[in-house]
Design goal:
Helices cover 51% and strands 16% of the residues. The protein folds into 3 domains: 208 residues; 91 residues, Elongation Factor Tu (Ef-tu), domain 3; 118 residues, 3-Layer(aba) Sandwich (Rossmann fold). The protein is built from 13 helices and 11 strands. The two termini are 27 Å apart.
């Protein structure tokens, strides 16, 4: 079954659940729409609450790293859905609060402040829901791009976890008030939330724990690839059972003080059944700067493999693999995979200068045509859609894989699209969620 059909089935399921939720709302609160202004506000507030609850469930499902979802949609598309669900959560929290407080204030002929205080003090489930909503709002606001850029990754990630605490605090409110407090709607909501919770716990928490018990991953050695880039070789037990495809990535947590935070890194070498390799750039001031200090025997938790940045996603038998900076890591793996599978591949590598070009010699020995460009120095060239088409005239017949800094990926994608390359044949992936 093709990915497009599988995606259509998932969309149908999500829409069907949304329709059921709206039908439940209409059955229990629809009559309020023909009453007074206060009642209309209350009905709309309940609808916003239902939308909020569903958005939270979708958000949890999206970050649960469900393989079936990831295979169907790909990590980039799921990231976009993740951001969309986060925005929906922000808007629906505000709408739920405004409409319900305003509606009951009109009903009770009270001012808004007194009505809010009455909610908070008299409704036991509301007080915990308000705290939960506050935590979700904080996590959502700090995830807005304009705000997030001022935060370190570690601080942002820690605050992001508040979303889960907020969802737990608000859950009681969803089954004690409103349209899901009893009968069939309550059963449906409990089944829906219970299933999402099981999926989240299973894939996000239990599976990495099982992998850890099975493989006992640990650092074998650290190799310097360039002045600021290091490769980490990771081994363990039963490594032949830890399968991944070239181009995929995983979340890695090194169990060592000062570095014990999970980070996404792509596999920089294909599966060999013996060890896995990641190649990491040393960014001063971040946890990556401590990768070079890892010692053999350091335990590692590996959550993955993840992503669809693989040759299995290709629509053609020919490919063009483009890497920039440390983005060459999955490209290196893909190049060797393409060679092993007999695919017609062209590799284009872009670095700032020759002094910091990780895995370059390795790339040149893959047997795949490899062109390297340096942006700095005399005669420097910067990759563009025009240059790619010049170097690879049959680019229209190839699947294109791009990995590197986000601005580079965006610019090259648009540069290729305006030259008639189908977006379906342009594969990029931003390794985060």
């Amino acid at each position: 079954m093709s990915n497009s059909i599988v995606r259509a089935l998932w969309y149908t399921l999500f829409i069907a659940i949304g329709v059921i939720l709206i039908v439940i709302w209409l059955a229990h609160s629809g009559y309020l729409l023909i009453e007074g202004t206060g009642d209309v506000f209350v009905a709309l507030g309940r609808l916003a609450g239902i939308a909020l609850g569903y958005a939270v469930l979708l958000e949890l499902l999206l970050v649960a790293r469900v393989p079936a979802l990831e295979r169907a949609f790909g990590f980039d598309r799921m990231n976009r859905f993740h951001r969309g669900a986060g925005i929906a959560i922000l808007y629906t929290i505000v709408a739920h609060l405004i409409f319900l407080v305003g509606g009951y204030a009109i009903r009770n002929d009270a001012n808004i402040v007194n009505q809010f205080v009455e909610f908070f003090e008299s409704w036991e489930d509301v007080s915990s829901a308000v705290w939960g909503a506050g935590l979700m709002l904080l996590a959502g606001v700090l995830s807005i791009k304009a705000v997030k850029k001022y935060l370190t990754y570690d601080l942002w990630y820690a605050v992001h976890l508040l979303m889960y605490i907020g969802a737990i605090l608000a859950f009681g409110h969803t089954i004690q008030s409103g349209d899901f407090a009893s009968g069939g709607p309550l059963i449906f909501w409990l089944l829906l939330t219970g299933e999402v919770a099981l999926v989240f716990v299973g894939y996000r928490i239990a599976l990495p724990f099982v992998y850890d018990l099975m493989h006992k991953f640990k650092v074998e050695r650290v190799v310097q690839e360039s002045p600021s880039t290091y490769s980490v070789y990771i081994g363990g037990k039963h490594m032949e059972k830890f399968h991944f495809e070239a181009g995929q990535f995983a979340q890695f947590t090194f169990l060592r003080r000062g570095i014990m935070r999970h980070r996404p890194f792509s596999f920089s070498a294909p599966y060999d059944g013996k060890h896995i390799r990641i190649t990491v750039k040393d960014f001063n001031g971040t946890v990556t700067s401590k990768i070079r200090t890892l010692v053999p025997g350091t335990r590692v938790i590996v959550d993955g493999p993840l992503g669809r940045f693989t040759l299995a996603s290709a629509e053609t038998e020919k490919c063009c693999l483009i890497g920039g900076g440390v983005g060459v890591t999955p490209i290196s793996s893909l190049a060797r995979d393409a060679k092993a599978k007999g695919k017609d591949a062209v590799v284009l590598i872009s670095h700032r200068n020759p002094s910091d070009a990780p895995l370059l010699e390795e790339m040149r020995t893959t047997g795949v045509r490899t062109e390297v460009f340096f942006a700095e120095g005399q005669g420097g060239q910067k990759l563009s859609g025009e240059l790619i088409e010049k170097i690879c005239p049959d680019i229209h017949e190839r699947d294109v894989y791009i990995c590197g800094p986000a601005p580079m990926m965006d610019a090259l994608t648009e540069g290729l699209v305006v030259r008639g390359i189908s977006r379906n044949r342009i594969h990029t992936e931003r390794f985060s969620m």
